Amino acid sequence: MTISGGGRLPETLDEAMAELNASVDVDSELWREDIEGSTAHARELARIGVLSADELDSLLGGLDTIREEIQSGAFAWDPALEDVHMNIESRLTAICGAVGGKLHTGRSRNDQVATDLRLWARRRSRELLDAISAMAGVIVDLAERELDTLMPAYTHLQRAQPSRLSHHLLAWQESLWRDYGRLADAVERLDECPLGAGAVAGSGFPLERARVASDLGFGQPMRNSIDATASRDFLIEIACALAILGVHLSRIGEEVVLWSTREFGFLELDDRFTTSSSMMPQKKNPDVAELVRGKSALVIGAATSLLVLEKGLAYGYGRDLQEDKRPIFDACQAVWQSLRALTGALATARFRRDRLQAALGEGHLCATDVADWLACRGVPFRQAHQIVGQLVREAEVRGVGLEALPTEVMARAHADLVCPEVREVLAPASAVERRRVHGGPARERVVEAIGEARERWAAARNAQPAR
Ligand code: ARG
Fold it and tell me: Which segments of the chain have a pLDDT < 50?
């Protein structure tokens, strides 16, 4: 079979051109979807009378054989046949004879590859949605388990105010929730089938495109044949959603790295998610988190590649689009691996409650609470802020915490501060419970947040089609 030439051009390509031209090492990933798309197209060709019932049976039988061959590893992929589509079609013709050549009636590789990619993107995205939801599930479980573990909340990576570990974990979960929504939204939008769009201006055969679309589980055919073959924003959307998710996983990874240090000592990863050093026998490194942080760079790169790939293309298929596959495949794979590994690492990690609580002890974390307390007694907050700021300075000079300042120092700062209630104000545990606002770290709020998160994720899971 001649691929590059057809009847129009010579059969052989320059060797360098052949190498540039071939994509099967990458796009063979699409084999399931290619067979699925060809099956639907063959059925439609039979319905409009292009294929007899026997011819259809022969083609479907051939496609089944090819599926088995690929699954078992017996299929011989040939780069000279360029891509996944021509490899499969060529084998089909070898199996079925000349009727194999009828399969491409009313179809172009342009609508074929766009269809394959949408089917692939939908399947892969749904797997990723499940993986995001599984990770969120583990985080919510941890939040429940660690409900009574207090820790500092940080700004500028400096201890800021007393909070609880669950509250921090639920912050991770909130980012994942938005990531889930972005990806689910992208999947919803790609629910349109390009088949029948042909190379660019549609097929002259009376294909019932809505029927083909529904055979493949799409909501409807794409409305415009030029758009159907020229547009890859469905991949860009997914890649961008994954890039944002990648950034979140990377930030979580960064915290796991920090928290695993001796300096923080908040967290101990299970040994199975760490590695040692080839030189330093004592090392236990949080590689899982570092790799997740690293993989996010690749995902951001993929989103960038896809944006740049499309930006200079006039409407209509351009061969540049062949280069859309590696970035989206790699991005999905990187995020998939990251989600699974980080989920496992978190599920098996041990939080060091003693260290988390102890971190509340130094850093005058209740300074805001003292200022707030004065403000409640009518001192303008700005003035209260100034008063407490001076007390912190005094405490720093003496090398003690705010709560250890002698009464006379407190009294000098503001007469009200000698009140015994101030001791309570300076206790981290009560400071956390005072933050009872919606979205705050007080125990009752976090208990509600955990329940609400569980319901929200369960509803999202139920809304996904069963697999
Ligand atoms: N391998 C090609 C791709 O991935 C298939 C479409 C080729 N179309 C063409 N007109 N050469 O984009």
Answer: 1-2
Task: Give the closest residue (by CA) to ligand 1 atom 12.
Answer: 322
Domain 15-105 has CATH 3.40.47.10: no
Question: Cα–Cα distance between 314 and 200 in angstroms, integer?
Answer: 12
What is the CATH number assigned to the segment(s) 110-213+222-358+456-463? 1.20.200.10
User: In the chain, which segments carry CATH 1.10.40.30?
Assistant: 360-445
User: Per the residue annotation, which of 41, 85, 277, 430 is the catalytic one?
Assistant: 277
Torsion-angle region of 296 (φ positive above 0: left; ψ -120 to 50: alpha; else: beta) = alpha
322 C-beta closer than 6 A to ligand 1: yes
Residue type present at position 432: V
The per-residue pLDDT for 259 is 98
Which atom of ligand 1 is found nearest the CA of 199?
A: 10
Confidence (pLDDT) at 284: 86
**Is 250 assigned a catalytic role?**
no
Range list for CATH 1.20.200.10 in the chain:
110-213+222-358+456-463
Ligand 1: atom nearest CA of 325 is: 4
Q: Which of 72, 156, 278, 438 is catalytic?
A: 156
CA 303 to ligand 1 center in whole angstroms: 21
Distance, CA of 328 to CA of 313 (rounded, Å): 18
Instruction: Check: CB of residue 45 under 8 Å from CB of residue 51.
Output: yes
Residue 4 CB–ligand 1 contact under 6 Å: no
Supply the DSSP string of 223-274, one letter for each residue: S-HHHHHH--HHHHHHHHHHHHHHHHHHHHHHHHHHHTSTTT--EE--GGG-
Identify whether 277 is a catalytic site residue: yes
Residues 6+ apart with CB under 8 A from 237: 182, 185, 186, 189, 190
**Whether the CB of 113 sits within 6 Å of ligand 1:** yes
Looking at residue 238, its pLDDT comes to 98
Q: Residue 380: helix, strand or coil by DSSP?
A: coil
Name the one residue in this structure whose structure tokens are 């809304």: 463
Q: Residue 109 Cα, ligand 1 centroid: separation in angstroms?
A: 6
State the CATH architecture for 360-445: Orthogonal Bundle (1.10)
